[in-house]
Write a structure and sequence with these properties.
10 strands; Endonuclease, Chain A; three-stranded antiparallel β-sheet; single chain; 16% strand; AbiEi antitoxin C-terminal domain-containing protein; 320 residues
């Protein structure tokens, strides 16, 4: 499209392209169109009314993107998608939420909208993107604050870190909130993410296996080239020739893959390292039994320290 042809495109057309086919009554007037346009096109079935004064300019099923735009536009000045809606757009949440979350300034008055959950805040909002949404750091802490369990809390923080949010930015967001339900936990988990944990499963391993039983610390997320392969290990106890691979169900839904087996074999041949592989069913249900295995591997690699039992029924041997 040439510059001349761009200049001939009506502003309303450009706005509709940007807003996934959604337009407001005010925007129609600002683009110089008659206020009678929505009524005639609604009556003909060419347009749909989503919220009062907010129209969808096509017939048929409404896409998630159009619903999101309609929610933000209906909420007016300063509104932004937040929580799970912003999390989906920012890559922190895997699936499209059915209910849209929109945050507005505390002094705004907005009527309840079908399919939209409103949040009010006194903090200064700085929406980004199309449709407007809160940034990843703000959204990660919003989601973590609303979470009901620790795994979800660290899951959101890890997702933010994988998307490039610095842990310093997460710390800043936690410190700047006057009211935060999981403040102490968030301080602890941000430090865990900064240390290298990339998933709730890794957090459980280092908390419930390594630290709970006073085992030597490992290096996390270690990259190495082994026999021509570029490999990354979740936890490496290099001094004791032991590695741990932590496979979440989402990453390996069918269990250990052929590639995993080949990688473990290459590590064994090239580095003489033992690879222990754990999943949710192991670390969530039997962390102490996992520790018994890990202690055995560390001892085979030369560790002469003393493991600590985490409780009276813990099966971990606490002497050499």
């Amino acid at each position: 499209m040439t510059m001349a042809s761009v200049a001939r495109v009506h502003p309303l057309t450009l706005l509709l392209e940007r807003q996934s086919g959604v337009i407001t009554r005010r925007q129609i007037a600002q683009c110089g169109r008659s206020p009678r346009v929505p009524r005639s096109r609604l009556e003909s079935g060419r347009w749909q009314l989503i919220h009062p004064g907010v129209y969808l300019t096509y017939s048929g099923p409404i896409t998630w993107s159009s619903r999101a735009w309609a929610a933000v536009l209906a909420c007016g000045r300063g509104a932004a998608l937040s929580h799970r809606s912003a999390g989906y757009l920012g890559g922190l949440v895997a699936s499209q939420p059915r209910q849209l979350d929109v945050t507005i300034p505390h002094d705004r008055q907005v009527r309840p909208l079908a399919g939209v959950r409103l949040h009010r805040t006194r903090r200064r909002l700085a929406p980004t993107g199309d449709p407007p949404r809160l940034g990843r750091a703000v959204t990660a802490i919003d989601l973590a604050d609303a979470a009901t369990n620790e795994d979800d809390v660290i899951g959101f923080l890890c997702a933010a870190a994988r998307r490039g949010v610095p842990t310093s930015r997460l710390r800043q967001e936690v410190a700047g909130r006057a009211r935060l339900r999981h403040r102490g936990l968030l301080h602890e988990l941000v430090a865990e993410v900064a240390a290298g944990s990339e998933s709730p499963l890794e957090h459980r391993f280092h908390r419930d296996v390594v630290r709970a039983h006073d085992l030597p610390a490992s290096a996390r997320q270690v990259w190495a080239e082994i026999r021509g392969l570029r490999l990354r290990a979740d936890a490496v106890f290099g001094e004791y020739a032991t590695r741990a691979e932590l496979d979440g169900a989402l990453a390996h839904p069918g269990g250990t893959t052929d590639a995993d087996v080949w990688r473990d074999n290459e590590v064994r041949v090239d580095r003489s390292h033992v690879t222990l592989r754990y999943r949710w069913s192991h670390l969530a249900v039997r962390p102490c039994d996992c520790t018994v295995q890990l202690v055995g591997a560390l001892r085979s690699g030369g560790w002469q320290g003393t493991a600590r039992r985490c409780g009276p029924l813990c099966p971990v041997p606490n002497s050499r």
